[in-house]
Queue: 2 jobs
Job 1
Amino acid sequence: MEKVQHLTRNAMRRASQAMEVPPQARRNLQELFVNFCLILICLLLMYIIVLLV
């Protein structure tokens, strides 16, 4: 059991190292995510306004 946990931990560490994204890409992803959220909020607000009118 201990060996399995050790192997899993090593695999997880290797995966996280392989998944390392450069800071520039991470910044781009964050900006994209923020823009997406802003658009969603705007759409939601417009929907509410249309419902209220």
Note: The longest helix spans residues 23-52.
Job 2
Amino acid sequence: MVPKHVLHDTSAYKYAVFDLDGLQADAYAPKGIHGDDYATLRALLPAERCCYAVYNLAFIRNMRPVAATIFYTWLPSAAPLDERQRYLLEADAAAAQLSHYDLKITSAQTSDFQQLAATHKARALLRRRRPRSLQP
């Protein structure tokens, strides 16, 4: 189980997965890990249960490193309808408990949990506002 103070501090990890009921153990990966982080994140998504995920995306924009924290609401079609509705309704409250996030994505498809898809959405967001540069 991830301590809630760690879970809510989005600067403390690369990604985290958590649910409302504690039926699934919270999972997170400390910053500094390498590899296909989205593949690992996708593997942690339950096929028949809803959950929330947070991912700290880093990419290059205009030859500068940029960071965007993405809050995901995972609503798989195999999850019960009442659970999907509850997670959707409580997404804003769950996201508000985080120390920071830039972008919220609601998804029922694992294809949204990919570096390219996330970078595309983050770039579109950053076109509308000033980017937050990565600290060295």
Note: The chain has a mean pLDDT of 82.
